[in-house]
Amino acid sequence: AQTVTQSQPEMSVQEAETVTLSCTYDTSESDYYLFWYKQPPSRQMILVIRQEAYKQQNATENRFSVNFQKAAKSFSLKISDSQLGDAAMYFCAYRSAFTGTASKLTFGTGTRLQVTL
Amino acid sequence: NAGVTQTPKFQVLKTGQSMTLQCAQDMNHNSMYWYRQDPGMGLRLIYYSASEGTTDKGEVPNGYNVSRLNKREFSLRLESAAPSQTSVYFCASSEHLFTEAFFGQGTRLTVV
User: What are residue A86's phi and psi, to 5 degrees?
Assistant: First the structure.
């Protein structure tokens, strides 16, 4: 079974600075998808960024980028120029690319990001 | 741009009561899901529906039933609520099983 580990329960960053959230996962599969979701106090789960395992290039979405290290099974999220609106819980998630198990998103336990002035 | 809509947003039940959580999506997605979120545990899959007319158990299905009413709607039923079912419930949908999921705003359910 796949597992996703987020070892940082809480992180803090100053506004306009850069922060990196860590995520590691364990799988025996060769093809899969990785996601970062943001959950602000409103409780809504918002997709931040997605990475396909077969792509070597790291995904980027505006101020958000990932460092995907397939051999190390690591998938960290970098937030540049942090803004107050980035304060939220961030979840790393894994999804298999195989039909039998693709239904399930496996989530980490989350990292709460605080943004300070 | 409603996306995924869940009702209700909050609910308090007494042990043994039943209720149905409703979910509807307007993105013409094929797959729909129900997750529960508990403190310190991330989200766990309860049931999913890969396509209209099919439903399957997820990681934590005990105590729940689902109905995929049509392509848009996917409901979750608690037949006899227990305090262990106190949680935040999320409905989600995706175009297919392999694509990213979009979530509703969640339902905070408390069973006393």
Answer: -80, -10
